[in-house]
Specification:
homodimer; Dna Topoisomerase Vi A Subunit, Chain: A, domain 2; 8 helices; two-stranded antiparallel sheet; 200 residues; metal-binding (chains A, B); Helicase, Ruva Protein, domain 3; DNA_Rcmb_RecR (chains A, B); Rcmb_RecR (chains A, B); alpha/beta
């Protein structure tokens, strides 16, 4: 893409196009928006990214991205130490926190097991979770993993690793069913079948 | 949006969501992608943005964003000095350069006249264009402005400013018609009517 604007601008576009949700065309629009709004957007965003690059790391206890280590959630004495919610990624943790329904702590696996993508148990933060549960004081581990084949395979594997510890920890799963506002006509058969079997 | 990840990460998301094409959800995904790919994406993109903030400015002749001043196009002796292509934004200039059909120089207005948005002639780089044409050696000014009401109003206004200079400069407009691959059934009536009237 030779557009005569100089290698710096083309490099900026090329890197922006690697962000999820941005293709080559939207990356050009984003680059133009940044260059046109130098003071209001380009410089503040550059500083925010530099800040993030300097300060954000994975919490040594739960693996969540944070500017503190341990992260604010792990360090908060008001949060329930006996419950761990296991999530795939920080985005799931952020979603749970937005909802505000959970007052325990988290464990971010950092991905899901996948034979296809070559993700093995040792590539995820599973040993760390086993250690946390082995150390005691945990009464419930909630598997908040995606309702996909990889998500459920990972949940089963993790549960199999936790069960032999034999310290009475309960392993629970997010309920499956009709989402709020969901119309039956638009739902897939698997969801309807689940919701029917687990009716109450 | 309190997600417990610290103010730096929330600030990063808030700024990313100001980019065109990114809403709050895709900004979260983009932030996570950046933080997970620190070495491959976050740091290179931060450096590219810092580079752009430091080096990119508007060309003093044509107004194009460039790391050189005058820009590479204005400074290139191989490009036709007698033709100026007038565009709204750098994105249009980049599109023209990708096509490679034009070997003259450009003039970036920096926007379009709009009574609604309060954009007046003095807010655009129109005086600079008049000066370039007044200085002579220009035989053709091509209005490559959008085929919208604002685009055409701006083109008429600019043409009215250039015509009194009376140095025989020709003012031309991009052809209107059926786009390549366009099926009549999918085109708006205005385009079909234009294409019919200007049939050849």
């Amino acid at each position: 893409m030779a557009i005569g604007a100089g290698p710096e601008i083309e490099r900026l576009m090329a890197l922006l196009s690697k962000l999820p949700g941005l293709g080559p065309r939207s990356a050009r629009r984003a680059a133009l928006a940044l260059l046109k709004r130098r003071e209001q957007l380009l410089i503040p965003l550059t500083n925010a990214m530099q800040d993030a690059a300097d300060k954000v790391e994975s919490c040594r206890i739960c693996g969540a991205l944070s500017t503190q280590n341990p992260c604010a959630t792990c360090a908060d004495p008001a949060r329930d130490k006996t419950m761990i919610c296991v999530v795939e990624e920080d985005s799931a943790l952020w979603a749970m926190e937005r909802v505000g329904a959970f007052s325990g702590r988290y464990h971010v696996l950092g991905g899901l097991l996948s034979a296809l993508d070559g993700v093995r148990p040792e590539d995820l933060r599973i040993d760390g979770l086993v250690e946390r549960v082995r150390a005691g004081h945990i009464t419930e581990v909630i598997m908040a993993l995606p309702a996909t084949v990889e998500g459920q395979t990972t949940a089963h594997y993790v549960a199999d690793r936790l069960r032999p510890l034999g310290n009475g920890v309960q392993i629970t799963y997010l309920a499956r069913g009709v989402p709020v506002g969901g119309e039956l006509d638009w739902l897939d058969d698997g969801t309807i079948s689940h919701a029917f079997k687990q009716r109450r």
